[in-house]
Amino acid sequence: MDLLHIQLAALQHQLSFVATEPIDWKFYAQACSWAMTLFESYLLLRQYPLYSKTAPPPALAAHFDETTFRNSQLYGKDKAQFSLVAGLLKQAVDSAMLQYGLYAWAWGVSGRLMGRFGYGTEYEITQSLAFAGILFMVSSAVSIPLSVYQTFVLEEKHGFNKTSPSLFVTDLVKNWVLTSVIGGPFLAVFLYVFKWAGDRFVLWLMAFLLAFQIIMVVLYPTVIQPLFNKLSPLPDGDLRSRTEALARKLKFPLTHLYEIDGSKRSSHSNAYFFGLPWSKHIVIFDTLIKESKPDEVEAVLAHELGHWYHMHPTKLLCISQLHIFSILALFPAFLHAPQFVRAFDFPMTVAAHPPTMVAFFMFLMILTPIEAFIGIMLNIVSRRFEWEADRFAFELEDRLGVSEMHDMGDRLGRALITLHVKNLSTVWVDWLYSAYHHSHPTLVERLKALEGFKTKRASEEKKEQ
Questions:
Q1: N or C of the chain: less Cβ packing under 10 Å?
Q2: CB-based burial, 8-37: b 16+ in 10 Å, e otherwise
């Protein structure tokens, strides 16, 4: 561990220019954020002409009737227009907040607010919580109207919205309460570890964040999810029998099998699993059950179990820990650089001893281009995992020796097509737009891969004869 701290200290020495060089960090943050927003707008403009195509890709021509494809194109076009406007609007607001010193103002307001309750500047964590609350309320002034439009105009127009105004408000209030009840203590402990561990905070913070992630794995399905959706045991029947049999054959530690009332808010479909290594739970949306046959839903679940078999969640967790370590390892150079915080309009009285919350918030701003690159890399990894999960489902007959699963690849292909048709998902996708935004391969790519698996199997069987 001492060797690690020596290496981290060497890294801080390399970053010492942060505290000495006259860098206009605010301009850098503005330039990076605008560059990323304009790049994302460019990607949308690359994608937009594809919504004018009048026929689906040849591989999907037999599965989309003219009306469904036209509706899919219109839905995609409307979503692209909304994303373009919303992205530029959010960026304009964020840029104005940064340019006119709103973050420094929020810190000052939080200090005066704490002063009214008899708390001075020595209560940095308490003031940081107030600071975060003020910024949350300011950002909500923009995000809530956009969310209202997206739910009650865009999704409503295309027949997906099932959320009533009262349910929307109820969900909003629940999210605010959860943010306060969970986010507040989390932030307080996060900042406390910074203060308590001193310059050796990196490993301690990583341990805390890992523990928090594990706790949330337990709390989310048992406490948080039931606040928004009803999880009911999947009724006895063909689908339950198939799922339990598949779990037994794969030795998947299935504890509970749920149906969730996703149709309460949307017509979109999904299925997923969660839980600790020794106790897993599968959740299937009622919309998926309604729109797909039991053998097709089984194929979707086989794909999800492929993620478990190949330990994809664990691998992603390890990658996320490496990502977090990299961020925390870079941060001390910025935490101990008064002129870095001063560049964002904070008074010298604050910048002389930068509050951890303020320095970290500003630090994340300048990581924008790096985080965008990391996002693309994570998409590449995620896509590879999706291929592996699809192949796992296709090869179940060989893995388990069960002849009834010889057509699992065909069933998965039909299920994916059904999901795309019912969700009016975009089927014409620009490659660069997809690389930046999509963690899953496109439908055409997945169907082509499944067909490739089938061709390879047929070739191998022919050689054996």
A1: C
A2: beeebeebeebeeeeeebbeebbebbbebb
The vertex-325 CA angle with 215 and 137, nearest 5°, equals: 60
Beta bridge partners of 276: 279
Give me the residue label for tokens 């959740």. Answer: 283
Q: Which of 390, 410, 430, 445 is catalytic?
A: 390
The active-site residue, picked from 291, 296, 304, 345, is 304
**For 57-108, what is each residue's pLDDT tens digit?**
988 888 888 999 999 999 999 999 999 999 999 999 999 999 999 999 999 9
The C-alpha atoms of residue 18 and residue 41 are separated, in whole angstroms, by 31
Active site residue 21: no
Could you tell me if 257 and 243 are in contact, meaning their C-beta atoms sit under 8 angstroms apart? Answer: yes
Do 167 and 264 touch, CB atoms closer than 8 A? Answer: yes
The answer to whether the Cα torsion of 189, 192, 197, 202 is positive or negative is: positive
Q: Token match 């439009």: residue?
A: 149
User: Which residue's structure tokens are 């509970």?
Assistant: 256
| Cα gap 176→178, rounded to integer Å | 5
Which pLDDT does position 300 carry in this prediction? 92
Report the binding-site residues for Zn(2+).
303, 307, 386
Please tell me the pTM assigned to this model.
0.87
Active site residue 390: yes
The secondary element (H helix, E strand) that includes residue 175 is helix 165-178
Distance in angstroms (rounded) separating the CA atoms of residues 207 and 196: 14
Kindly write down the DSSP assignment for every residue of 25-57, as one continuous string.
HHHHHHHHHHHHHHHHHHHHHHHGGGGG-SS--
